Amino acid sequence: MDAHNPHADAHKDAHALVAHAPPGLSWLARASIAAYLPSIAAGMAKTLEWMFRPAVTLRYPEQQYKPRKGYRGEHRLKKDEQGRPKCVACFMCATACPAECITIVAEPAPWPDRDKVPAKFEIDMLKCIYCGMCEEACPCDAIELTETFTQIATTRKEKIYDKERLLKN
Amino acid sequence: MTWLWFFAKIGVALGIIFSLGPVCIMGDRKISAWIQGRVGPNRVGPWGTFQPIADILKLMMKEVIVPDGVDKVLFLGGPLIVFIAPVFGYCVIPFGNQIGEEKLQVVNLDIGLLFIMSVLSVGVYGITLGGWASNNKFSLMGSLRASAQLISYELTFGLTMLLVVMMSASADPLKSASVDLSKIVLHQAEYGWNIFGGATWWGLPSGLIGFVLLFTCAMAENNRLPFDMAECEAELVGGYHTEYSGMGFAMYMFSEYCSMILSASLIVTLFLGGWSFPYLTDPADHSFLAGVISIGVFFTKICIILFLYIQLRWTLPRFRYDQVMSLGWKTFLPLALVNIGYMAVIGVFLEKP
Q: How far apart are CA A117 and CA A106, in angstroms?
């Protein structure tokens, strides 16, 4: 370490004062116990005060955290008035996705008002970073992040959400 | 009848230790939670009160793993020694006033104070042996720290006890000083608690300093935070009980609380007037009711001291090892010596018969 580094010296000085008080200072070290006691009393008063404050924790299964509006949780694929998925398989969301977790396979649409619909629409929830870029990129307002934050699965496979799962959200 | 009394007294003494032990474990967790703005264990039983039972049951069910290369006898004997010592020490603590002819004390030893002193230091043998037998560097370091700490603080501990003995002699020159714990308590009941200087006004500073010293040393000897250098998990994995699992670990953990209770009882006995409380207990009243009240007073005092122990644990950060040593040798030992010197010199000048 650089001996002329002022920070290194300051650290050394502080250490010397606390740990190895020079002989001339030993009365100070001895007096420090008396100085320490009021601090302990102050600390005890503080902890006593905290003991009577209400707990800040949520008792999870009974009390649930309510996310604010705009929270970015699990995805949802929206449906239009006739119950068809809004998605037109334009790949905008998959392109925008920084984590590359969206897989889309398109097929020709059975309806005259659009060219394509997704045959497969998968999001790997383990890769997703919940940034909301897909939501912003979507030209049809078909994908959206919900406020669901509890995601439970026992296998990795379950965490790859397909179209049906996303439409259900 | 005598035997009945004997067993009843053993029952009460053991009852205090074994009922307060789980309460301490629970209190430790609950109070830490409250201080940190949490709720603490609240799932097992009403308000989580069965949590310590669940803890102990869990640890009992677990396998006791004896690693290769350990000294088996010492490895399994360590927890036993450390567990027996505080229970053994409790037999000389006077936990109540007399009922009829029976002193509420399992054994009325004349050398009660010396007995407590020796038994308190036996506990560290369990820690040292356990750490050494584990055949693990970190365990050995932890146990060495425990024994170094004990030796350092035992001096101050003993000197402070000596102060108490001097105080019990100071009021009445005709009475000789005693190391009999029941006599020390009786003296305090009659003349005033030792924390307030016993019988005399000039003993007040001495009593206060002595109380602080004894309290801190008891904490250091029990390896409680802020003095838990022996199991400092930031530096030494888990300290002396790194290799222990299941019941061995449970005994180490439980014995820490047992020796806490013993130390609290000792502090109460030596400085806070034992079972006596002004206007509530009368040393001359030997009825059954008075005896029960005195036990209640003693119990309440222990609980207050234990609460202080636990609150201190969650208030203060852990000391560094060199700080512990320099506090013990450079601050506490001189302070205790000066304290005793003050008591002796002033006592001779002011209380000359």
A: 6
B7: exposed, middle or buried (C-beta count within 10 Å: 0-12, 13-18, 19+)?
exposed
Q: Give the distance from residue B303's alpha carbon to the nearest chain A alpha carbon, in angstroms.
A: 16
For strands B96-99 and A102-108, give the pairing.
Answer: unpaired
Between chains, do B37 and A53 touch, taking CB under 8 Å as contact? yes
Q: Which of B156, B316, B333, B337 to mutate to test the interface with A (most CBs of A within 10 A)?
A: B316
The domain segmentation of chain B, as residue ranges, is 2-349
ipTM strictly over 0.90?
A: no
In angstroms, rounded to a whole number, what is the distance separating the alpha carbons of residues B11 and B5?
10
- Give chain A positions within 8 Å (CB) of B338: none
Tokens of B227: 């003095």
Q: If you count residue pairs, one on A and one on B, with CB atoms under 8 Å apart, how many are there?
A: 53
pTM over 0.80: no
Q: What is the pLDDT of residues A123-169, one digit of tens each?
A: 898 899 989 899 899 888 888 888 888 888 899 888 888 888 888 87
Which run of H or of E encompasses A121?
Answer: strand A116-124
Task: Give the closest residue to B158 by CA, choosing from B118, B106, B122, B190.
Answer: B118
- Residues of chain A found within 8 Å of residue B312, distances taken between Cβ atoms: 40, 44
| Domain range annotation of chain A | 6-51, 75-168
- State the nearest Cα–Cα gap between B322 and chain A, in angstroms: 7
Q: Is the Cβ pair B322, A19 closer than 8 Å?
A: yes
Q: Which residue of A has its CA nearest to B38?
A: A55
How many angstroms separate the CA of residue B42 from the nearest CA in chain A?
10
pLDDT tens digits, residue range B264-300? 988 998 888 888 888 877 777 778 888 888 888 888 9
Strands A102-108 and A116-124: antiparallel
CATH number for the domain running over A75-168:
3.30.70.3270
Beta-carbon-side half-sphere exposure of residue B96 (alpha carbons within 13 Å): 27
Q: What is the DSSP letter of A119?
A: E
Q: How wide is the angle at C-alpha B207 spanned by C-alphas B202 and B210, nearest 5°?
A: 140
CB B268 within 8 A of CB B262: no
